[in-house]
Design a protein that fits this description.
CATH class of the largest domain: Alpha Beta
CATH architecture of the largest domain: 3-Layer(aba) Sandwich
Number of helices: 11
Strand content: 5-15%
Order of helices and strands: EEHHHHHEHEHEHHEHEH
Number of domains: 2
CATH topology of the largest domain: Rossmann fold
Radius of gyration: 18 Å
Strand order of the largest sheet: 5-4-1-6-7
CATH superfamily of the largest domain: HAD superfamily/HAD-like
Amino acid sequence: MINTIILDIGNVLAGFDYRAYLKDKGFSGDMLERLCRATVENGLWREIDRSASEMMDESLVAKFMAFDPEIAGAIRDFMFSTYEIAKEYGYAPGFVKSLKRNGYKVYLLSNYGKANFKYAKDNFDFFNYVDGGVISYETGFVKPEAGIYKAIIHKYDIKPQEAVFLDDVEANVLAASALGFHTIHFKNLDQAIEELKHLGVKIDYKQV
């Protein structure tokens, strides 16, 4: 019987549309593409999510700037404002509260560097209702690396066969499944709720 729900944050409980954010800042065309390639779409990005630094790591930012030196200034400005990208979904607090109301433990499992995570925790309402979680910077592992899943299993004594993990990235879902979790590849809230119900999870949340 399922007694635990584990939720990713980005694109599950909070939007992470970095392209829309950059467009709002006035970037477009080739400049937009170069900024994306040099930052969020750069394989180095996962090192941001490992970072346990209270502030954005200057030495790490320098590595991103070196990826495209011609736009180094824009890269630096963007890296020091990335905490602004994620926006809490309106449904997030009610969705979590519905799961809690029906008796489930609710935990977070998300890739986040410490500097950016502090902003999220201080500003997103759903944090008031979850039972805890494991964030990548705390462990040194990032999804889909097995270590981060093992960290949450050990921290809360979770039995994977009694838990459901929801994430918008297929590789992360597959990694959790390999460790025995029930999984849902999150595409939108209605789809996720239907799949939760199919797994026998009781949930009474309805979007307004």
